[in-house]
Every structure is written in structure tokens, then in C-alpha cells.
Amino acid sequence: xxxxxxxxxxxxxxxxxxxxxxxxxxxxxxxxxxxxxxxxxxxxxxxxxxxxxxxxxxxxxxxxxxxxxxxxxxxxxxxxxxxxxxxxxxxxx
Length: 93
Description:
By secondary structure, the chain is α+β, with helices and mostly antiparallel strands.
């Protein structure tokens, strides 16, 4: 089993969720709708100086489902190359 964690700009939140739910029917996940922080290029703080914000989505899935999700996320990254879509996976017991 793996934990998949995705962070991206809020501007693509709906597209990301629709793609993941469409590719894995019945997908269960946790969504943290507002995440502030600093990435490699800029800040996402929700302020007048740094107005953008990110979201975080994570899920625990079997390896074959994670492989499908990673393919879907790779397609989203190609479609939205400037929205900071980043994903990590971690093995969990």
C-alpha cells in the first residue's frame, strides 16, 4: 500500500479531482483546500503580495491504483505545466 500526496495551485483543483475520480471510480481521498507555503519559484500565501494558494490531496491505495493515479497526474501536468502540480508516493504498512 502507498500514500499518494499531491500539491497544486488551487486554479486546477476541480480539474485534478474530476480527472482522478473519473480514472478511479469510488476513489477516496482527503482534501486540504487551502495550503500556504513556498515552492521552488514563488510563495503561495493568499495575501495581496502573494495571492495564490495551493491545495493538498492525499489518498492511501494499493500499488496498482497508485500506478493509474500517477498516469492521470502525468497527463494533468502536461495539460497544466505552470500550475505546480507535484506528487509524491510513500510506502506505508
